[in-house]
Each structure stands twice: as structure tokens, then as C-alpha cells.
Design brief:
Rossmann fold; alpha/beta; six-stranded parallel β-sheet; six-stranded mixed β-sheet; 2 domains
Amino acid sequence: MKLRRWIIAAVLGLVALSCGDQQEAPAEKKLKIAGIVFQEDQFFRLIQFGMQDAADKAGVELLLANSANKPDKEIQLVNTYIARGVDAIVISPLSAKASATALQRAKDAGIAVVTYNTTVEGDIPAAYIESDQGDLGRQTGLVARRYIEEQLGGQAKIATLAFKSQLAEQSDARRNGFVEVVGQLPGVEFVAEQDAWLPEMALKKAGDILTAHPEIDIIWSANEGGTVGSVMAVKNAGREGKVVVFGTDASQQLVEFMLAEDGILQALTTQTPFELGTKAMELAIAALKGQEVAAKVVMDGVLVARQDPDGVRAFGTRLADLIALGNQ
């Protein structure tokens, strides 16, 4: 009888000890990741929505910020996140060289750095994800070349709007891709090139080009803001039916322009910013968990063209759904 009591007591003691161990086991640390964009437009808002969606699904705390195209503010943000002890920084750096110093400090502090859209020199990032910048120009260039051949008899004078003073390498890759394809036609001449990446800036620059070069047939722009401004400049100049626009990146406004009866916006090749933000966040989380990640990931662009109105509408619906998801 005494032996039985002893066995029961021993078993109860082990159970209590086991329960105590379970209660004292530390909870798994919640990862904290900073996500930094550098511009307030639909492209970067969708990137933020993608980051947030991936973070929510993984149970990660996400701290979002915007450097507003200001190098000093970018450095300040990185330093702030270093001080706050975040686990990772996901960022589209403003400069391959100038942004590297602050991000190296983050890496030295044990913070994983993942770059997207743009990157920095050296081996600072654990991973880098981008769209194929040259392909963004080439895909649109193929549609523009066909337009020139079929609608303009193979002859065209073209102006381009870029963002070289902002991000030279990315801007050049897009423009070079477009020129590489369209320039194969002997009757094509590029008569003007300006830097304008915001709508109001592009509206003025494109308007000035149309005044100085009334012979222009086509304006190509390297980004969303430039494309919006170019379309508005053609409208304001009353050049519908005489000048068309080809562009890069997409927004709800550009989808509306593509479906408008004025025929100004013909085609654009867009990145997939929601997916870009999602994938960048997933790479950061994987790196923090010690999983092997690719040093560089390249995403294809998506062509949206007036010749396929059903495709334009489907793209617009998808875009609206993603924006609604991000605004929840």
C-alpha cells in the first residue's frame, strides 16, 4: 500500500514538473521588420500593401516608412530602425553608393537587409528582388514598333521622358530597352529627351516638347507619373489623333486612359508591385529563419495594351481588388 502511494506521488510530481516546464518555456519571438519606400504613388502603395499582406500572414510586425526621395531622411530612417532593434530592413535604396553606408551599419548590427526595385553595391543585401527593367521598355517597344509600321508607314518622330536624375541605371535600362526595339526601324527618329517622373513635371515637360517639336508622333515615358503627365499634355495641346503615348507602370488612372475613346494611351508595360512587396517580405522572413534565399530574383513585367480591351479591364479589376485589400 505504501509502495502504491509512493508511485502515485511520484507520477503526480512528474506531471507537475512537466506542466511547470511547459509554462516556463519562452514564447517564440515575434519578428519586427521595417519596410521603406521612397515615393508616394500607386506603385509604392501597392508594394506596401504586398509587404503588409505577407507580414500579416506570417505573424510579423511591420513598420512602414517613406523616405520621400530624400537621402538624409533615408539615412535617418535606417538609423532609427537600427536603434529600435528591428530584425530586418526591406528597402528600395535611393542610391547604389550613398545608401550603402547606412545599410552596412544595419548589417553590422545583425539586421538582415533585403533590397527591392533598386539595390546597393557590395554584398550588403541578403537578397535583392527587381523587375526586369530592360524588358519593361522592350515589351512596350514591340507594340510601338508595330503601331509605327501599321499606322505611320514605318516613319515616326519620338520624344522620351525618363527619370535619369533620380535613378539613372533603372531609367536607362527602360529607355534603352524601348529604343533597342523601336530603333530597328530606319524611319524612326528620336528628337527629344527630358527627365520628368511626376505627373505635374511631365505635363510641363511634355507640353514644352510638343510646342518645340510639333512634328512629334509618339511620346514614350519611363514611369507612371511621366505617362500620366504625357497623356494630359497631349490632351491639353489638342493633339488627340495626332500624337500617341506609350508608357511604363500602371495605375487605375492609366487603366481609365487606356480605355478612353481619345486613343492617346496605346500601351504600357507594368511591374507587379503588390507581388514585388510580397516577395521582398517573404525573402526577409526566410533569411531571418536561416533558410537559403536567392541573392537576386527577377520578375517579368506585364503588358497592357489598347488592342486588348478585355485584358485591360481584367487588369484594372485585379488592380482595384489589390487596392481594396490593402485598404482593409
